[in-house]
Design a protein that fits this description.
This protein has 2 domains: about 170 residues, Alpha-Beta Complex (Aspartate Aminotransferase, domain 1), CATH 3.90.1150; about 250 residues, Aspartate Aminotransferase, domain 2 (3-Layer(aba) Sandwich). The protein has 15 helices and 14 strands. The strands form 3 sheets. A 7-stranded mixed β-sheet has the order 4-10-9-8-7-5-6, sandwiched between helices. The chain has a 4-stranded mixed β-sheet with strand order 1-2-3-13. Strand 7, helix 8 and strand 8 form a beta-alpha-beta unit. Helix 3 packs parallel to helix 11 and helix 12 packs parallel to helix 15. Bound molecules: pyridoxal-5'-phosphate. The site of pyridoxal-5'-phosphate has 15 residues, from helix 4. Pyridoxal-5'-phosphate (PLP) binds next to helix 4.
Length: about 425
């Protein structure tokens, strides 16, 4: 039997100095009957906690570690770069290289600017869209999460959903009033909204594969409908690919589904585990950014050499032939394995998977939007989480998060996980 004594002590100590004991709410075990586990180190598909327990990791730092923990080439690149200095506050050649790689991979991105997080990327993309269109309103979708940007914390997913505050206090009413939120995958709702107030809408921002209410794929025609309605009304379409970018496919969901947005937000994978975000799109729009144009956006550490080199090395490994095919194939095998394990144990679940994103929903019905996600048995999910943890498998501590696979997860880890899942289902 595992024990987590040291983690419990560290959590009690952390809670004295840090609100809730964590520096990001999703790390709290708000919806599972346990305190958070403190990790110490990771290697490949595994991470190890302060009590010496090992886990097969399906959180992967919430998505960035697509090559697994402490990948040899990424670590070596960071080390050799650090010896040359950790930053200069001047341009470096590395930034152009990362920008070029992103632009080559994503045809809709003609120019790109690097920032430090996904939140910065979406915040800046909204400002740019508003400046470009001269309009103020923003449309998002219920249960999508776009970082902790004021106008986007309306019916938000991820930690905001898990901890029961999808619409955050502290967001000024005047700001909230500029946001509209529609049900995900609901074409009629978005068409009706545009029919009523299309001339005031600056942009629609969407996760092209929703990942912050669990993994929910776009239904056929949904992304195409967003493209068409925004075009007809002169609004911009922003794909928030902070999670899906370079994860569901080389480039991202827009390559997988063949729908072209005006602006794209990136983060997570493109930083290889270090803090990087990016937003880019049509040159004509990007040229509005200061100092080329008048829309202000800046960052002391933007394009930091250590972060950029980690991202660059990660993308280099991902560009090898066959990487995404293998990631998808293994993720599909895992997803099917978990579904079969649940059937064997007589537990009804609904499994989703797109590329190396997947979720096990405790639902008898298909999960296609926030309403169907919220109908899941979250209490049962919490017990499943702890049963998996006891068996050395670490998934996100919330029903409303996606799981991730890395290239370091082999057949052995998948078999072990499916076996652990079947035991966990039986123990519920
Ligand atoms: C994680 C995430 C963000 C926020 O990124 P941070 O780096 O945490 O600020 C934004 N959008 C989506 C889709 C995300 O998954």
């Amino acid at each position: 039997m595992r024990n987590w004594d040291r983690s419990r002590e560290l959590f009690e100590d952390a809670s004295r100095y840090i609100p809730g004991g964590v520096n990001s709410p999703a790390r709290a075990f708000g919806s599972v009957p346990m305190h958070p586990v403190f990790m110490e180190r990771g290697r490949g598909a595994y991470m190890y906690d302060v009590d010496g327990n090992g886990y097969i990791d399906y959180v992967l730092s919430w998505g960035p570690l697509v090559l697994g923990h402490a990948h040899r080439d990424v670590v070596a690149a960071i080390q050799s770069r650090a010896r040359l200095g950790t930053g200069f506050g001047t341009p470096t050649e590395l930034e152009t290289e990362l920008a070029r790689t992103i632009i080559d991979a994503i045809p809709s991105v003609e120019q790109v600017r690097l920032v430090n997080s996904g939140t910065e990327a979406t915040m800046s993309a909204l400002r740019l869209a508003r400046a470009y269109t001269g309009r103020e309103r923003i449309v998002k979708f219920d249960g999508c999460y776009h970082g902790h940007v004021d106008p986007l914390l309306i019916k938000a997913g991820s930690g905001a959903l898990t901890h029961g505050e999808p619409t955050s206090p502290g967001v000024p009413d005047a700001v909230a009033a500029t946001t509209r939120s529609c049900p995900y995958n609901d074409i009629e709702a978005i068409e009706a909204l545009f029919a009523a107030e299309g001339e005031q809408i600056a942009a629609v921002i969407v996760e092209p594969v929703a990942g912050n209410m669990g993994c929910i794929p776009p239904q056929p025609g949904f992304l195409e409908a967003l493209r068409s309605v925004t075009e007809r009304h002169g609004a911009l379409l922003i794909f928030d690919e902070v999670m899906s970018g370079f994860r569901v496919a080389w480039g991202g969901a827009q390559i997988l589904y063949g729908v072209t947005p005006d602006l794209t937000c990136l983060g997570k994978v493109i930083g290889g585990g270090l803090p990087v975000g990016a937003f880019g799109g049509k040159r004509e729009i990007m040229q509005l950014l200061s100092p080329a144009g008048a829309v202000y956006q800046a960052g002391t550490l933007s394009g930091n050499p250590l972060a950029v080199v980690a991202g660059h090395e990660t993308l280099a490994a991902l560009s090898e032939p066959g990487v995404y095919e293998q990631l998808s194939e293994r993720s599909e095998r895992l997803s099917w394995g978990i579904l079969r394990a649940a059937e064997n144990a007589g537990v009804p679940i609904y499994a989703t998977q797109v590329g190396s994103m997947f979720t096990t929903f405790f639902s008898e019905q298909p999960v296609t939007d926030l309403t169907s996600a919220q109908a899941c048995d979250t209490e049962r999910f919490g017990r499943f989480f702890v049963e998996l943890l006891r068996r050395g498998v670490y998934i996100a501590p919330s029903q409303f998060e996606s799981g991730f696979l890395s290239t370091a997860h082999g057949e052995g880890e998948i078999e072990q996980t499916v076996a652990a899942a079947e035991e966990a289902f039986r123990a519920l």
